[in-house]
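Long-time lurker, first post. I've been practising inverse folding by hand and with some scripts of my own, and I keep getting stuck on stretches where the structure tokens seem ambiguous. Below is the full token string for one chain I'm working on. Before anyone asks, I'm not after the true native sequence, just a reasonable design that respects the backbone. If someone could post their per-position residues I'd love to compare against what I wrote down in my notebook.
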């Protein structure tokens, strides 16, 4: 009897031990599952952070590359405008005038005669760069003639024709509340219609697909992404004038024979929305020294 009771007690103790062991194993499996879940969560957060960092880096790199392309395009437009003012190609050859062989309508400058100026053409205005502006002359030189021609043509939305502008339209206003034209979207659209594209007057080539700066290539007016405008300015010793936006200081540029300098404004827009670069420079045609 005693021996049977002892066996029962041993069986009960063994069963209790087995139950306790099973409970301990289940508890261990629960802790392991919790640890695994924590590790998976941390790994997921790490992967998410890495992907977001890579995406942000790609966006920053892409924006910077787009800005650099636009900046280089604007620089190229400045140089193209200088060749346009000089009336030559990058190789030094003279660009054909309107009416001459190889001259294309809408891509030529007329001979420097007042009667040759035509600002009424819709998209094909013919305007040349002024070569004289003597403040002592009654007519002020052909710069005043140009201003008169443009101002008399009613219906123009800007004081520009064939990428040549007058009356200080390209100046940066002194009044901070009045933005420059490239910050006024309505005025900018009107200015674009009167601006020049790369190679329009110089026959410069923007390159084929995969070559050169893609922002300089133009297949249509709606696909254009770079423009330039040139505004002739008179030399004036003092800028204390109500019309200061039309003048430039004389300085020591004695080599300038005509008394006119040119303010060039170049604008390029990148492929990404919001990418826009505007550059301005003053170009002075220097007198060529005679031999001997």
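-- Answer (accepted) --
I ran through it position by position. Result:
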């Amino acid at each position: 009897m005693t021996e049977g009771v002892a066996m029962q007690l041993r069986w009960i103790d063994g069963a209790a031990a087995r139950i306790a062991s099973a409970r301990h194993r289940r508890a261990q499996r629960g802790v392991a599952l919790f640890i695994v879940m924590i590790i998976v969560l941390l790994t997921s957060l790490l992967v998410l952070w890495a992907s977001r960092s890579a995406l942000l880096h790609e966006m920053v790199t892409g924006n910077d590359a787009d800005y650099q392309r636009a900046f280089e395009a604007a620089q190229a437009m400045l140089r193209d405008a200088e060749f346009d003012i000089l009336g030559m190609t990058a190789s030094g050859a003279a660009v054909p005038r309107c009416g001459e062989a190889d001259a294309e309508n809408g891509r030529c400058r007329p001979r420097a005669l007042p009667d040759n100026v035509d600002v009424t053409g819709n998209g094909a205005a013919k305007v040349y760069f002024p070569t004289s502006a003597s403040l002592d002359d009654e007519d002020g030189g052909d710069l005043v003639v140009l201003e008169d021609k443009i101002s008399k043509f009613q219906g123009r939305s800007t004081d520009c024709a064939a990428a040549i502008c007058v009356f200080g339209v390209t100046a940066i206003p002194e009044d901070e509340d009045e933005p420059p034209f490239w910050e006024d979207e309505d005025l900018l659209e009107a200015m674009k219609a009167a601006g020049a594209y790369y190679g329009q007057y110089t026959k410069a080539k923007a390159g084929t697909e995969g070559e050169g700066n893609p922002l300089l290539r133009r297949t249509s007016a709606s696909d254009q992404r770079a423009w330039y405008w040139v505004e002739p300015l008179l030399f004036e010793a003092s800028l204390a004038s109500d019309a200061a936006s039309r003048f430039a200081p004389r300085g020591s540029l004695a080599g300038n024979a005509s008394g006119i300098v040119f303010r060039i404004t170049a604008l390029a827009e990148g492929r990404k929305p919001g990418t826009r670069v505007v550059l301005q420079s003053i170009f002075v045609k220097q007198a060529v020294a005679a031999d001997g």
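A couple of notes from the structure itself: The longest helix spans residues 2-86. The CA atoms of residues 148 and 255 lie 28 Å apart. Happy to go over any region you disagree with.
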